[in-house]
Amino acid sequence: MVEVRFLERRLASGMLAQVVRLAPKMIRVSPCFIRDAPPDETRLSLTLASARLGLPVAPVPPAARRMTPREIDGSLRIAARADARSGVACAPLRLLRTVAAGLAPGEILINANYFLFLPTEVSAPFDAYGDPVGLTQADGVIETPPQVRRACLLMSDAGPEIRRIGFADIAVCSAEGKEFTPHLFGLPDQTGPGTAFALFHGSTGGTTPPGKGLWDVAFVGRHAVALSEHGGLSIPRAGCVLRCANRADADAVASGPLHYTLPGVLQGVQSGPVIVESGETTEAKRDVFAEELMSAEAPRPDTVPVSPHAWAADWHGTRAARLSAGITGNGQLFFCAVEGTSSFFRDGLAKGATLHDLAHLMIEEGAVQAMHLDGGGSTQVFCEGGGALIAPRDVHHGMPDSPAQFDRPLPLGLVLS
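and the corresponding structure tokens:
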């Protein structure tokens, strides 16, 4: 069973907070976004996403769902989620409370990643509200690749680790075994066939560079959504684009799922930033927000906003519910969830922890390494049967001053066992 401790702690800022400390033996990623959600959960997701975005929202199926190829706007689009639609696309999202009904006795389900959440993040044709941001790896299979070099929580046979990984750190191989070279961060002249592009890894304003006579294949996660000639193809935030020498090669590449490889890793999620290193907070050492491209001032080789866009990159200003992963000096993985409010809460004083609070809490609990996993309305911890170990606190953005509590639908969970 997972070791669970309920704590009342006075944080470094002086605030009292309810904390749940979780110490599992194992973790596994549960990628809900690769499967259809139940109809009632889809309706709730659309209601809350529409209120959040202030725009009409339409559901799209998982990227693996195929359809008969047809030409649209000069590109051959081959997945249902890339078809013409009205409104902003919304990826399959689940209520972790109901997902927890399927847990084994003694297991705990938590949230553990960022996802596309703002209008600026879902403006490209292949992006959907709810798509995970960065690495998601379940049972050795990478469903979405890392993008910018940002903190990842990884589990291998050797145990847990926290490591920064970017798109150029993985291997990319098509279904028929053709290898593609990930574009290096900020290297503009890597544009030939056999290149794998991601945002900030070779894109020009979010699209592939010109390539006369060359064919690009766009993937959301592992599955192709579009083919296009001569470059200029939008690059999905939750995927990549592979460049081929001709149409025949592009058709072959698009025929099956991609294989992303990160040697030795079985489970992985990406969030960030790293908040504790060598038993000390990273707050005073350097600008970790810029290092992990989590601040607007961070230099980047593109004009596209980095996800999560407008993330509150501060140590002391933003107080909300928080979730963090830490590793002790003897290699034990543990998590701390701090009960609090949504980052968008407007009804009274915000509750929870700042990043400064969270870092010092993790050090007090024995972390020599720690990273921020998520916060605000996404912070959720459920036991078998859907019981909440901390109170979820999202808001309905059509009712911003309502004290009502909502469970935010999410794309994946992390199962602790």
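(Above: one complete record from the training split.) Residues 3-65+92-165+265-416 form one domain.
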